[in-house]
Each structure stands twice: as structure tokens, then as C-alpha cells.
């Protein structure tokens, strides 16, 4: 099989570094080009990142010698080198929106980790197991952009992966509302403890914009395609509080859920639904898909961040502590790896889904 030629825009940051490692030996994708800011352009990738390599695994040797392109000035050159690009740039949102549309109009599909286009009405925000049908909106987006191949698809906020997949198979019972408290690792801010010593032995009860994303983005995931746009769902209502905690990787969520009167499933039924939950990622046997998406732990002290964040190569969601609540119907704990399932790995899985469904084709 000829592999897709892939570029990374914003390849020097922590999520960009994750993309680089995930593309090493990928059966479908071959890393061909890396772009970043003008200050990194012209250097070899390793020259650009050696002092800032943030992962606990080594940089792939094949990536080290790639010459970094200027994400803005070299856009046309990069677009001509690849079949599609991942995007993880650190720029103001308006600049990101403009940059991603520039690449799309150059007929280069963009699979974005950024939040800038998550609320653009004809840009699909997809978790492959949950709302793969939203990819149909790409046709309308291409008409707006005037493109044949180019488009933008995005993944959702990384913290959503720790609770939305668990809520999704329970929607059929009339899930009415949920309260979520997330405890988010420092890598979600692109940091390590060496770069952020203030986080050692600390918890910060604020992450800018995170609570709004946690409450609103699930409604787009659960929305519907209608008249060339994605209309968000009216519910369930979600209220969220988000904390930054002293973990390197792994976002945890404490979740409380309430069902409509007379619709409450049993705990046994919830566990059966979680164990059986599959989506197109599993049905298509995409390379990055976990065999089982949701894993439930019966032990009272699981899931734990250090023990369980790498479950199924960091692409599965760990659940535990399901029990009845005095004010809501049930409460439980969820855990996901934020830079794998939540960020770069989730984007790679989305790209695999796009390729499998013919939205990205080899040039």
C-alpha cells in the first residue's frame, strides 16, 4: 500500500511532537514535511526542538533531519508536497482560522487539533466513535471555500474524551443533565514540570475558556447536519468546573448524571452498554483505534492516572466508581490520555476515518 504523504503545521510544540512520534511507522501515513513559525524555519527539525523536546520517548530519527518550513510563507510549497496536513499551531484564533483556510483553499485537507474552527458551522468536529456522520458537511464546506479537495476537520477539546464517550451510549435512556469536574494534566497546557515548577505540589482551579468548551462542545458532537451546517443539540445540559492538577499526562473527570423521570437504567445495564460500545473506528479497524473503546474497572480505586492513561496505547477511555448519588441518579469517574486520545492521537484517528471514507485522497 502506498502511504499518504503527510505534513505537520506547528510541529515543534508538544502536540506537534506527539504527531511526529505517532507518524513513525504508521501503516498508512508517512511524515514528509514539518512547518512551524518563522523563527524555526530553515533549521533541521532537531535543531528547532532539541532543547524543547517534551516527551518521554525519543524523537524519531527520520524526522530529525527534515528542514522546517515557514507555516505561513511556505504554505503553497507545503501544500504541494503532501496529501494532507495535521495542524497544531500556537497562534491567535483569528490567525489560525485564516491559516487553516489558506491551506484548504490550496487544496490541502487540514485535520486540526486547534479550537479556532470548532464552532464554524460547516466544519465537522468529530470523535470517530460518536459522530462520524458529521463528515457529510464537508461537501457544503467545499462549496463555500470553492475547493475540490481542500477542507478543514477538527477534533474536540481534549478533556471531553474523559466523559463524553461514557455519556454517549446512555443518551438513549433520556440523559437530562450532567455535572462534570475535570482534573487536567499540565501537558494540556503544553508544559512539563521542568518548565512549570509552580505546578509541583499544586492545583489551580481555573483554566481559561475550558469550562465553556466542556459545556458547549458536546452539544455540537451530538448535533445534526441540516441545510449545510451543523446544528447543535439542545441537551443534555452540562455544567463543568475545570482544574489544573500536578500530573504530567492524563485528564480525569468526576461525572454526575441525571436521567428523565422513569428512564433511569440500572447500573448493570450501564456497564453492559459501556462494554458493548463500538463505532466506525472499531468497525473499520482503523490503525489507531482501540479494540475496546470504554473499559470499566470494578476496583474501588481505579482508574488511576499513572496506571491507566496508556490503556490501549493511550487511545481507550477508562471508567470506574459507578454508583448511585443522593442528588443525581449516578456518578462515576473517567480518564483519558490528553495528548494521545485527546489531542494528536485523536486527530490521527480522525484522519484515518477521513481516508477510509474517501474524503482524503492521494494526489
From TrEMBL:
GO terms, biological process: methionine biosynthetic process; threonine biosynthetic process
Active site per UniProt: 158, 251
A Pfam family that the UniProt record links to this protein: Semialdhyde_dhC
Superkingdom classification of source: Bacteria
Keywords noted in UniProt: NADP, Oxidoreductase
Transmembrane region(s): none
Protein EC: 1.2.1.11
Keyword NADP: yes
SUPFAM superfamilies: Glyceraldehyde-3-phosphate dehydrogenase-like, C-terminal domain, NAD(P)-binding Rossmann-fold domains
Name of the top EC class for this enzyme: oxidoreductase
Keyword Transit peptide applies: no
InterPro entries tied to this protein: ASADH-related, Asp_semi-ald_DH_pep-lack, NAD(P)-bd_dom_sf, Semialdehyde_DH_NAD-bd, Semialdhyde_DH_dimer_dom
Domain Semialdehyde dehydrogenase NAD-binding, residue spans: 5-138
GO molecular-function terms, A-Z: aspartate-semialdehyde dehydrogenase activity; NAD binding; NADP binding; protein dimerization activity
Family of the protein in this entry: Belongs to the aspartate-semialdehyde dehydrogenase family.
NCBIfam families from the UniProt entry: asd_EA, PRK08664.1
Name this protein carries in UniProt: Aspartate-semialdehyde dehydrogenase
